[in-house]
Amino acid sequence: MNILILGSGGREHALAWAVKQNPKCDRLICAPGNAGMDAIAECASIDIENGGAVVEFAQENSVDFVIVGPEAPLANGVADRLREAGIKVFGPSAAAARLEASKSFTKEICDASGAPTAGYGHFTDADAAKAHIRANGAPIVVKADGLAAGKGVIVAMTEAEALDAIDDMFGGAFGGAGAEVVIEEFMEGEEASYFVLCDGKTALPIGTAQDHKRVGEGDTGPNTGGMGAYSPAPVLTDEIAQKAMDEIVNPTVAEMAKRGTPYQGVLYVGLMIKDGQPRLVEYNVRFGDPECQVLMMRLGAQALDLLLACAEERLDEAQVNWADDHAITVVYAAKGYPGAYEKGTVIGGLDSTQEDSKNMVFHAGTKAVDGKITATGGRVLNVTARGNTLAEAQERAYAMVDGINWPDGFYRKDIGWRAL
Ligand code: AMP
Ligand code: GLY
After folding, report:
1. Is the pTM of this model over 0.90?
2. Structurally, how many domains does the chain consist of?
């Protein structure tokens, strides 16, 4: 079959890498793609947030299956347009993508389905929001309701910080995303992510992961989109994972179906775990980046069969064949990230890295210029490895990192420390 993957990051390179290994995949196109994807697939330049443009491209190129990587096209209804045109698609409708696109919607679904999550208030007025903060005190969490590229959450350790966040949000710091805010109880515990495929009726877990959000070693410094990740997450034991399915995921899937907006795609379930009890922090309606890289490294070619079963509403007959293995990914970022950084710097040594079913350098922000790989973003490479133990995977990943020559980049040397 002909497959189109939408996106340009490490997540999409990892999806392309896994899909490509499956004999069902004939032609593979990535849009817009990056230098890593260009090496294993065709890259096409289309506006991936424009459903009409995606449908037209898919029809012209006899695409049988579209896999949507990021959330923005989903929130924009790209999956709806594809389904209307009779093209198979992996990813939820715009109505179901509200589970990521609106934090207050997710809270409403939790209320309706009884899913455990932080207590909250929802405000469209700054004075009322401030009164709520003063009444509850710090620590407290202030969230812009809409999509804010991962930046709309302020975990305020003091009341003053929380009040400032309200001024910023209603002042337009997050554009339309901050016109409404959700203020949440601060939850303590350990965070982990659970990835579950849903076809509208059936939910099938495909793996657990943990990421490192802070830029610095020892989980210090500013927040980032993620400096590394590993799978599985030891804190998500079988028992806690089952609780998360019974108390959070399955009730959500049932509630979405009941409302006539069934959830189809991957549900990224962000959990806070304390004393053996998981609570929902957030949903995302796409794979995590870089969590997807470790999941794909572990799933390999079967990923395509699973994503197809999801799109064809056959998850009740699908099963995941798990190896008892571990994967880790180390993010190689441009110096300065998450602040200002230089673009266009040249990365050397990639030709000589050994890439196989256990070792892969996924590209997150790269472009080939005159035959050289250059950096185009903040998070640039995801150096990913698999092993029988997490320690073995970690050793492999850092051995690959050592072979890369990029003076303008940096990485954390302690990815995986919490689990080791
Ligand atoms: P979100 O985008 O909702 O996942 O928030 C980003 C990060 O903020 C999460 O991964 C948590 O580390 C933190 N966070 C969000 N909500 C809470 C909460 N209610 N209590 C504690 N930490 C939170
Ligand atoms: N790694 C966090 C995310 O993808 O949202």
Report:
1. yes
2. 4
282 lines ligand 1 (CB under 6 A): yes
Nearest CA-CA partner of 36 in 353, 397, 358: 353
Report how far ligand 2's centroid is from the alpha carbon of 297 (Å): 17
Residues 140 and 75 in one domain: no
Cα(194) to ligand 2 centroid in Å equals: 12
Q: What is the pLDDT of residues 330-375, one digit of tens each?
A: 999 999 999 999 999 999 999 988 899 999 999 999 999 999 999 9
pLDDT, tens only, 30-83? 999 999 999 999 999 999 999 999 999 999 999 999 999 999 999 999 999 999
Domain final residue pick, 47, 71, 93: 93
Residue 417 resides in a domain: no
Domain end among 317, 352, 383: 317
Per the structure, the complete domain to which residue 35 belongs is given by 2-93
Residue 219, domain CATH: 3.30.470.20
Ligand closest to Cα of 71 equals 2
Q: Which tens digits make up the pLDDT trace of 376-402?
A: 999 999 999 999 999 999 999 999 999
Whether the CB of 226 sits within 6 Å of ligand 2: yes
